[in-house]
Write a structure and sequence with these properties.
By secondary structure, this protein is of the alpha+beta class. The protein is built from 4 helices and 7 strands. About 15% of the residues lie in helices and about 35% in strands. A hairpin with a 2-residue loop joins strand 3 and strand 4.
């Protein structure tokens, strides 16, 4: 049995003046998200922020700022590190179901800030999860000067030098260079 999500906001509960919601997502939230989707690799993190909901007729404007740190693995050396993270976002939620787009259709900048909702409540948790995923770097680096791992023995080149020969070129284009003409 799945637990009811805590960040379900009733649309009727949003006053005409708007509604501000303080966000504090600690390791327990992010660990649960990781349990639901093992591809999310940021269980040890803390994200805080503020989200403001405003009604505009039946449309709902969601504005927010999230900041904190994400525990990520470096894409070069595989070591864990705390990466600072921050994002400001504006989303316009309109009632209805998203129409399936034609394959190869290009999205405009306006389309990127538009989403849909159905029912009488907003799932703020899924919107926040999406924003956190968007602020994650594609190739996280513990440091710009990270040397990574040795391709032969796997030694972390940030901590020690490995015994492998670095002058041996392992490239299919190296052999033609040795040919005498």
């Amino acid at each position: 049995m799945t637990a009811k999500k805590a960040l379900q906001i009733s649309i009727k509960a949003i006053p005409e003046t708007g509604l501000e919601i303080a966000i504090d997502l600690g390791p327990e939230w992010l660990a649960r998200w990781h349990g639901e989707d093992p591809g999310l690799e940021f269980a040890d993190a803390r994200i805080t922020g503020l989200v403001r909901l405003e009604k505009h007729g039946r449309d709902i404007l969601v504005r927010g700022r999230l900041a904190g740190h994400l525990e990520l693995a470096c894409s070069r050396c595989l070591e864990s590190f705390a990466a600072p993270a921050a994002i400001d976002f504006d989303l316009l939620l309109v009632p209805g179901v998203a129409a399936a787009s034609a394959e190869g259709e290009e999205l405009s900048l306006t389309d990127l800030d538009l989403d849909y909702y159905t029912g009488e409540a907003l799932d703020l948790e899924s919107l926040l999860r999406e924003q956190i995923i968007l602020m994650m770097p594609l190739k996280p680096l513990c440091d710009e000067t990270c040397k990574g791992l040795c391709a032969h023995c796997g030694t972390s080149l940030n901590r020690e030098t490995c015994p492998c020969q670095t002058d041996a070129v392992n490239s299919p284009f190296a052999h033609p260079a040795k040919l005498k003409m």
